[in-house]
Amino acid sequence: MFESEGIMQENIRLLIVDDSMTIRQAIERNLKEFPLEVVGSAGDGRTALELFKTTKPDVVTLDITMPEMDGITVLEEMMKINKNVKIMVITALKDKATGLRAIQLGARSYLIKPFTSEKLKAAFGRMMGNN
Amino acid sequence: MNETDLHFFIDSTVNYFEEITGERAVTGIPYLKGKEPVVLDYSGIIGISGKRKGCIYITTTKEMLKSLASIILDDNEATLETVKDLTGEIANTISGNVREAYGSSFMISVPVVVEGRAKDIRLPEQVQAFVIPITWQENKSFLVVCLE
Predict the structure, then answer these.
(1) Model pTM?
(2) CATH fold of A2-124, please?
(3) Enclosing domain of residue B58
(4) How many A-B residue pairs are in contact by the CB < 8 A criterion?
(5) Which tens digits make up the pLDDT trace of B75-101?
(6) Which residues in chain B touch residue A116, judged by CB atoms under 8 angstroms apart?
(7) List of long-range contacts for A71-78, beta carbons under 8 Å, 24+ apart
(8) In chain A, where the domains are located
(9) N or C: which end of chain B has fewer CB within 10 A?
């Protein structure tokens, strides 16, 4: 169980989205200390959106440069479906305009690759409100 | 392409290795690519479009990729699939990070990974390509940058 804002919750349902299998594995491995259940893992934007609809995650880690559908489009669509979902964009795109766009669209966090385990965990923890 | 452009890529590459591994990569003096192939075991290729057009690829050895994978995944038994995937991800990260200098009009493709040393990577004609030698933990790689 996990306490958030005074409410005891089941494990946080996490959807991992990145076209790199290595990165998906690294994210899952590095976030193990959080009370998470990985409900899906997608390597392209279209699959990510389908999984988002069927698995109804609480949290998403989302890449931007992906086949089928880019992460900004996916982010927009996910926010239309559930504006309460917490989305952490994890991307190599280091320009300010893209970061700003992601936040304006509703991303709660924006992490630049390459990331260390510590930076990922710190950013995830901040997003979940556990400082 | 000029010296400033090359520095952006050099900085991005050095930062990649330092951030992931805690150990700096050393880059050699960039040189103009000639007709000789610059291809090692695996190559990750990124197409560039927008204000600057061209292509970037990193080419490296299986040993280097397995060493990196063991750090990223804490797994000494990286599969061939992981090794191939990591090649593309390195190329993606180095190219994406350069957007800090070039801005969002520097558009990068999803990576294409080529396995094997049989042939050279075909680059845009009429565009100069520069080769940046990279050494990390005695493993040699090359970053090839071909931009208008």
Answers:
(1) 0.93
(2) Rossmann fold (3.40.50)
(3) 3-147
(4) 69
(5) 877 899 999 999 999 999 999 999 999
(6) 19-20
(7) A71/A17, A71/A45, A72/A98, A72/A101, A72/A102, A72/A105, A73/A45, A74/A17, A74/A45, A74/A48, A74/A49, A75/A102, A75/A105, A75/A106, A75/A107, A76/A105, A77/A49, A77/A52, A78/A49, A78/A52
(8) 2-124
(9) C
